[in-house]
Structures are given as C-alpha cells and as structure tokens.
Amino acid sequence: MKAGMADRNGIRARGVRPVAVIRAGAVIIVLGALVVGVGVLQSRCSGTATLREPDPRATRPVLAGVLPGGAETLANPVGLAWDGSRLYVCESDAGRIAVFDAAGRRTGTIRVPVASGAATAYPAAICTSENRTIAVVDAAAQRVLVINADTMGEARVVREIGGSAGVGQPTAVASVGGRLYVADASDGTIKVFDDGDRPVSVLAQDLNPKLTFVTSMSASDGSLYVVDSNAGRVIEMDVDTGTFRAALETRFTLPRGVAVLTGGRIAVADAFGGRVAVFSGTRQTGALDAGSVPGAPFRSIRALAWDGQRGRLFVADAGSGRVAAIDVPRVWGIR
User: Using CA atoms, how far apart are residues 324 and 333, in angstroms rounded to an integer?
Assistant: First the structure.
C-alpha cells in the first residue's frame, strides 16, 4: 500500500495526474489507428498504377495491363462501362460493382441492393448514364437500377425500372442522348425511357426475325448496335426508330459485348471464339486474340468498354476473372 501511495505521490510530485496519463495514452492509440486506416485507404485507392500509358508509336494492339493487379480476381466479371475517368465492372457472383480509375487502381465498390423476395443481387449488364449515374441490370430481380456513381458502399438508388414499367426481363442497357434503352427478352423488344415511368417508344417490334436475347448495346452517329446473343448476330438499327439497317457479316457462336471504337470501327466480344472481332462497316477487318495480344485473357469474353481518349479497349473475361486493357491504334483495323 505504501509503495502504491509512493507511486501516485511521485506522479503528483512531477505535476502529472493519472487521468491525464490515461487520456494521453488513448489519444496515442486513436492517432495510431488513424494512421493505419489512412495507410490502408492509400494502398487501396492510390497505390501503384496497374496500367501502362499508351505508346503513340504503336502500330499493332498492345496489352497495357490486366485488372485487378496481383493475384486478386473478380467474381465473374460480365459487364463493363467507362465514364471517361472510371471503369465500372459488374462482379455478378458477388452482387457488386468494382470501380477502377484510369491507371487501374481500384477506388471503390458499389454493392447492389438485394430486392425483396430475391436471394441475392446479380448485376449482369451496366452503362453510364446522365447526371453521374450508372444503370445496372439486376438479373436476379428482373429490374434495372439507376444508381449514383459517386457513392461507394451500399448503392444509392435513384430510380428503378421493372415490371411496373412494362419491362419483363431486362438483359442489356444503353444510354443515348439522355434516354435509357432497355433490352427486354420477354417480348424481344428494346424499350426507351426518359424520366417517366413508362417507355416513350418501343423498338424492334417488327424486326424479322425477332430479337432473342440481347446482351449488349452501343450507339454512335444515329445507329444502335445490338448483340442478339442467342441468334449469333450483331445488327445495326436506327437509334430513334429501330429500323433495321444492316447486320455484321460474321455469324458468331456466342457474341456477348459490343463497343464502337474510334474511326467507325465496331468491336464484338466472341465468347466461344475467344476473341474480339473488329469490323469496319459490316466487314471484319481484324481480331484481338491470344495470338495478336499475348498475355491477354481470352477464355470467356463477356463485355467491352471503350476509352476513346486513350484508344483503349477494356475486355472482361469471366473465365479468368480479369479485365484486360488493350491499346488499339487509331488506324488499326480500318480498310
């Protein structure tokens, strides 16, 4: 007891109260935790760049890198969208959207909410939309969710399109001129929405043969390119009226994604063919595959996204759980 009193008296004699010591220790612990937290955030959000910058001297396609870096893989990446600075990847088996910056650093994750009565969420297709939003097809609930693109963590849903809007089985989405295009496999049409609850127009109602199962759409210069996956075809239609214009000359076993590249070229993901076919007009003029782009994963290609500023094509490969970034020179594939 006397020794204890001596210790306490010694502390008081030096002008330091026991409570102050405890508080100081708590502050040190909190500061240490903050430092560790900041370090973790920096490693996740501002780590070493994964993707190399394009080589302006290149005349052939070049692999700029693969996402994610290291040994990590993505949970069944089947949808891609690029907004000019960020890449959004549907990790369908995890019910979430992975977000990467232009250098390939993972900057966040958006969790798709599970619908009432559904066991999980299944983001199967995605596009960037107006006012910093993304539109996501949730195949588990047969709905399209318009989500704030800047909110990480639990998704902030700003709009839902489903059965009440006349959409029975959404399979693909595209945003064109402020309107949202939704492919509906329940009736083989493409429904076009503005801000209202009902479609302002319905495309492809009279198309013969009818659309079967659309997995991707991309628009440019008044045309809408549509991947009719189960029919093994890619068609071009008028973006306003849905009038048939042309079909790409190649018949595919299982086409999945489409992207319009610089110079009017069209890229098509051929899942079973293990390649990305490139077209000029309706004629195939080139292909990206394991031979032309060594090191790129081409086991089961599901989606494409185009970064026009860098001339970079993102290719989602569900077979490897990765996304390849391939720089495609401006003049390559044009004849």
Answer: 19
Task: Quick: pLDDT tens for 173-232.
Answer: 999 999 999 999 999 999 999 988 899 999 999 999 999 999 999 999 999 999 999 999
100 burial class (0-12, 13-18, 19+ CB within 10 angstroms)? Answer: buried
Burial class of residue 247 in the structure, from the number of CB atoms within 10 Å of its CB (0-12 exposed, 13-18 middle, 19+ buried): middle
Which strand ranges, in their side-by-side order, compose the sheet holding 133-138? 123-128, 133-138, 143-148, 157-161
- pLDDT for res 184: 98
pTM: 0.86
Question: What residue spans define the domains of the chain?
Answer: 1-46, 51-327
Write down the CATH number for the domain with range 51-327. 2.120.10.30
Instruction: Indicate the DSSP class of residue 277.
Output: E
Helix spans in the chain (H): 2-13, 18-45
**Beta strand pairing call for 143-148 and 189-193:** unpaired
**What phi and psi values does residue 65 have, to the nearest 5 degrees?**
150, 175
Q: Which backbone phi and psi does 269 adopt, to 5 degrees? A: -80, 120
